[in-house]
Amino acid sequence: MSTRQILIRLPEEVAAKLKAAVPARQRNKFIAELVAAAVARHEDKLAKIADAVTSEEKRKPKIVQETRDWEAAAGDGLEEKHGRHAKPQTR
Considering the domain boundaries, does residue 39 fall inside one? Predict the structure, then answer.
């Protein structure tokens, strides 16, 4: 597997505990495993949320139509730009 170097910043206290608990040549692997596990948990939560939404849509088809209506209205020209409503372009 290829690797990529990134810069992360840790609070002093966390960095000191990491240095004390994990030998120098094992820290990259240790951190990579922790991050991979945390990302997997996060993805599992998102998958459960998506499943719940899909189940709810199957139980209540009206929700699907309401979502389509909102999506259709999303491109109605009222997009926000820099915190304000976009002004119509004049020619």
Answer: yes
C-beta of residue 31 within 8 angstroms of C-beta of residue 24: no
The parent domain of residue 52 ranges over 24-71
Q: Is residue 49 one of the residues assigned to a domain?
A: yes
Whether 7 is in a domain gets the answer no
Residue 63, in any domain of the structure: yes
pLDDT values of the chain reduced to their tens digit, one per residue, 91 residues: 899 999 999 999 999 999 999 999 999 999 999 999 999 999 999 999 999 988 888 888 888 888 888 888 776 666 666 555 556 666 5
Q: 86 CB contacts (<8 Å, ≥6 apart)? A: 77, 78, 79, 80
Residue 58 — left, alpha, or beta (φ > 0 → left; ψ -120 to 50 → alpha)?
alpha
Contact 85, 78 (CB under 8 A): yes
Question: Whole-angstrom Cα distance, residue 6 to residue 8?
Answer: 6
The number of domains in the chain is 1
